[in-house]
């Protein structure tokens, strides 16, 4: 074999490796994230400052935490758009219990119990009663949001207990730099990403979302899997709501407005298919970071909030259109 052919083989293998790498959704998203950061580092003042990076990761922690549950529900073939209203609602038992007992543990316990109940209701109505998940969670969104407006009288309920441990959830920093909320979010991401890729229940979620009938014939309890996914989504949204309540220091009726659409946008941008069975939590996390850095950079450029919403909307439509085109190409191929 000639020297030329011997060198050509490794070159071809190397180019093939990079071609496969670039085809991966996560790599494309990572490159997109790098480009966004690079662009704003030159155009927006103080974009790469430690303080701004800390703020970005602190803000992203809310969407990242709730996005894990949202992505899992999407992969199972369903949707959950009640998470924004849940963020506002769980602050009520959290703040009220802490004000009455001065106990963070009891407050968080009450909030998680409330989130669990919402997840059970959403999961039961969808998985066992057979009602469309969009209708169920849309109705739940209105019920929760309306209930908060009625209970609070559209006035904030302050955190009178002012527990240092509670305030640390939003203001605390590891080594004075990394927000505790970001550590919680990325810790949860690692746990659930491992579950989705390496545990039987994760494989069941992909199977159920890909083809429920085939999953049923394979012996999977389709209804139980979907029911559990809604519980996971509500509990993770509850964790995000606890962090948000610590950040604003009160229970507010406006908390979490449009939050569900931010999370859905990041989830779809991250490659999680609306059709179910496709996507990864890593991709969702990259989608969250892209939108968060984009929003932060646009604010740094002084762009009005209205334009930020327009750009986010365009990104959602483009991501869904790309997902649909990819799905049709796969079917056609």
Key features of this structure:
single chain, 333 residues, mainly alpha, two-stranded antiparallel ribbon, two-stranded antiparallel sheet, 15 helices
Question: Would you write up a description of this structure?
Answer:
With about 325 residues, the chain is mainly alpha-helical. The chain has a domain at about 50-255. It has helices at about 5-25, 25-45, 50-75, 85-90, 90-100, 105-130, 135-150, 165-170, 180-200, 200-210, 210-215, 220-250, 260-270, 280-300, 305-330, and strands spanning about 155-160, 175, 180, 250. A hairpin with a 3-residue loop joins strand 2 (about 175) and strand 3 (about 180). The longest helix is centred in the last third of the chain and has 28 residues, at about 305-330. The two termini are about 35 Å apart. About 40% of the residues are buried. Residues about 1-10 have low confidence and may be disordered.
Layout of strands and helices, then pairs:
Blueprint: H1 3-23, H2 25-43, H3 50-75, H4 83-89, H5 91-101, H6 104-128, H7 133-152, E1 157-158, H8 164-171, E2 173-174, E3 178-179, H9 180-198, H10 200-210, H11 212-217, H12 222-248, E4 250-251, H13 259-269, H14 281-300, H15 305-332
Antiparallel strand pairs: 1-4, 2-3
Helix pairs in contact: 2-14, 3-9, 3-12, 3-13, 3-14, 4-7, 4-12, 5-6, 6-7, 6-12, 8-12, 9-10, 10-12, 13-14, 13-15
